[in-house]
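Hi support team,

I submitted a single chain yesterday and got back a structure, but I'm not sure I'm reading the token output correctly. Could someone confirm the output below corresponds to the sequence I sent? I've pasted both exactly as they appear in my results page.

Thanks,
R.
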Amino acid sequence: MILPIYAYGQPVLKKVAEPVTPDYPELAELIANMWETMYNADGVGLAAPQVGLAIRLFVIDTEQLDKEEDGEPPRDPGFKKVFINAQMLDESGELWPYEEGCLSIPRISGDVERQPDIRLRYQDENFVEHEETFSGINARVIQHEYDHIEGILFTERLKPLKKRLIRRKLDDIRTGKINPDYKMRFVKMR
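Hi R., thanks for writing in. Yes, this is the structure output for that exact sequence:
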């Protein structure tokens, strides 16, 4: 089932998410719905807060990014994974800017500086614990989704000038004065 994606301004997007336990109701169905919702919106990642749930869960499929560009093979093979109760253990390397966007903030993008290498501890959909390192675009997508479960949006990481330039567009998203290509839930105005 395709779920509505919560738009910029929804309070759940600013909450630090709570851990997920193995007895979380209908977790497998939620994960399946998140995959369907993400693909429907042409995303590569989706966090539970983006569908209105303040829990530490996100899904990522960077295999979609494995297509060759300009005849060059991809540097990092993509993956398709569920991340539950993720904990960032380390971020390292020289900051590198890369243009990011977000399904909760449609039609806005901007350069975000992030470190290229991370070490992450998480559980998969069967609650098996993993500790892995990721780099490049894979690390970036994880960092973006991890920010969601920490209540941080990519727009908060933009340079001050860019933040000022998008202020009106963010207000339009918050109040639903946009027409996205997928189902969204906006802040209700009184």
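A quick pointer for reading it: DSSP finds three helices and nine strands in the chain. Let us know if anything else looks off.

Best,
Support desk
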